Amino acid sequence: MNVAIIGYGNIGKAVEQAVLAAPDMVLSDVFHHNDDLSRIKADVAILCVPTREVPEYAQICIKQGIATIDSFDIHTRIYELRKELSPLDIQHKTVSVIAAGWDPGSDSVVRALLLALAPQGITYTNFGPGRSMGHTVAAKAIEGVRDALSLTIPLGTGVHRRMVYVELEDGADIKRVEKLILKDDYFKYDETHVIAVPSVAVLNNVAHGVNLVRSGVSGTTHNQRFEFNMAINNPALTGQVMVACARAAVRMKEAGRFGAYTMIELAPIDLLPGNPEALIKELV
Amino acid sequence: MNVAIIGYGNIGKAVEQAVLAAPDMVLSDVFHHNDDLSRIKADVAILCVPTREVPEYAQICIKQGIATIDSFDIHTRIYELRKELSPLDIQHKTVSVIAAGWDPGSDSVVRALLLALAPQGITYTNFGPGRSMGHTVAAKAIEGVRDALSLTIPLGTGVHRRMVYVELEDGADIKRVEKLILKDDYFKYDETHVIAVPSVAVLNNVAHGVNLVRSGVSGTTHNQRFEFNMAINNPALTGQVMVACARAAVRMKEAGRFGAYTMIELAPIDLLPGNPEALIKELV
Question: Burial of B3 by CB count in 10 Å (0-12 exposed, 13-18 middle, 19+ buried)?
Fold first, then answer.
């Protein structure tokens, strides 16, 4: 299958590596931001653009009958995006896989599976340790901050600590910066520590992780316990998930199952190269 | 959906509890071993019979157009069973979900997902601590053994210890029994400890578990680490998985996707009650 990459930042580069490593894919083209997208030649376009630009880029591709993959990550608007793209996919006889990263994405698959295994109970998704993009951007926007990094630290039961490393602008007061951060909407509900550092750049690290736990009831039997842990390079995993979903999108399209799907709507086997016989023998 | 249970041992009883707890299912009938199966009235039959009898019972149901679920667990013959049942399912316009337990079953889904997340690397499935049915039966068959229990203890990297508790027949020699167990095909490749106890019955416990680990490569990035752990009541989980797969089978049948499927071929959302909109909003 021929794969086009749209957007060439951290994620675009990670997708490129995953496509080149895939035994069943050819990288047909890489489109940078603002390239002309009027004539994409590919079976599937992997959208590595900022989340808010996903709907626009997806529509451009879908209208050319090209399958699309995105890692749209605004949890509360995923269903909306699916509803927006699905009729367009059906009209143009193609497939979109949306919210295809690790959370939303592969974590969503684990949450769905655990809910099936123990329908009554509580699932906690504990993120990190790792950098939160949203919180980092919020901290950078604070007056007096030259650069910032907000780490998410998992405290269990879905509660997180925020470790905010700030590089101050000349003359800025750390006490004042701390006060502004602590009352910001992104930080005011969580335990937050603000630490002044001489350089944020030297702290940067794309490591991230998750600890996803569920204790629940199967049938009438309580105390069923499940746990999923990851410690990963964030863009590398996101890129790999998008590439796996590109494979599934092309297969769904070939099967005539047009529309927009989230990862919990895909059969895991379709994420994998190789024939069903070999995969079933290896994995089941 | 109307669900029939065929076979009423440990698993049949666990399935019954899970069906009764399901908001979208009605238990239409429970068939004991040797009941007349010529006129089953149900959308789906959950086969809780011994693994070797699954093909026979599945065919009886499929020929009546009824979807079937089994937890057939001979890993090396799962593909064969799928190949045998799938054309029959297609002929009778129905669906079978096979090997639907926790391993094979939900663990297979986790293995497939982890392979998609990091295509290069090694996955280890470490079972236990918990009772191995196969090893327990093998130990019971040894001359001089009245009753036995073989526990599987995970040592990591897919290596297991066998703790074999034996209740001896009158006059039996523990040294001789131990020697026979250690050279048995089931035990000779693993570290095995044989322990004489006055009563095996008081040791019994249906607890089991798994520790499934993968370290691999996403794209070109090494050191991606994943882990899935469970500590569960074995029949309760098996029953719950079968019930979740019954739901998926009926949905696949309604969608006209006839045939036999393993769990890695099912979309996780189809395992769950409720509408896609609510599930996507909750889980993705």
Answer: buried
Three-state DSSP class for residue A152: strand
Spell out the alpha helix ranges (H) of chain B. 10-21, 54-62, 78-91, 106-117, 133-140, 174-182, 234-254, 276-283
Stretches where chain A sits below pLDDT 70 are: none
The chain B residue lying nearest A270, using CA atoms, is B265
Q: Residue B34's pLDDT band (boundaries 50, 70, 90)?
A: confident
A274, A276, A277, A282: CA torsion to nearest 10:
70
pLDDT at B120: 98
- B50 contacts B11 by C-beta, under 8 angstroms: no
Position A249, amino acid: A
Chain A residues lying within 8 Å of B11, measured CB to CB: none
Task: Compute the CA torsion angle A81, A83, A87, A92 (nearest 10 deg).
Answer: 20
Q: Are A14 and A240 in contact (CB under 8 A)?
A: yes
Are the C-beta atoms of residues A61 and A31 closer than 8 Å to each other?
A: no
Asked if B280 lies within 8 A of A220 by C-beta distance, the reply is no
A245 to chain B: closest CA residue: B116
Smallest CA–CA distance from A272 into chain B, residue: B116
Amino acid occupying residue A169? E
Residue with tokens 């059906």: A90
Cβ-defined contact of B264 to A284 (cutoff 8 Å):
yes
ipTM: 0.97
User: What sign does the dihedral A76-A78-A80-A81 (CA atoms) show?
Assistant: positive
* pTM of model > 0.95: yes
Quick one: pLDDT at residue A33?
A: 82
Q: How confident is the model over B169-192, as pLDDT tens digits?
A: 999 999 999 999 999 999 999 999
CA-to-CA distance for B228 and A214, rounded, in angstroms?
A: 11
pLDDT grade for B33, boundaries at 50, 70 and 90: confident
CA distances from B190 to A80, A87, A148, B181, B185 (A): 54, 56, 53, 11, 10
Whether A120 and A278 have beta carbons less than 8 Å apart is answered as no
Asked if B272 lies within 8 A of A115 by C-beta distance, the reply is: yes
CA–CA dist B81, A214 (Å, integer): 33
pLDDT at A244: 98
Alpha helix stretches (DSSP H) within chain A = 10-21, 54-62, 78-91, 106-117, 133-140, 174-182, 234-254, 276-283
**Distance (Å) from the alpha carbon of B112 to chain A's nearest alpha carbon:** 6
Nearest partner of B106 among A99, A226, A265, A273, judged by Cα: A226
When comparing pLDDT for B113 and B134, which is higher?
A: B113
| Cα–Cα distance measured from residue B43 to residue A210, given in angstroms and rounded to the nearest whole number | 39
Place of tokens 């580069």: A13
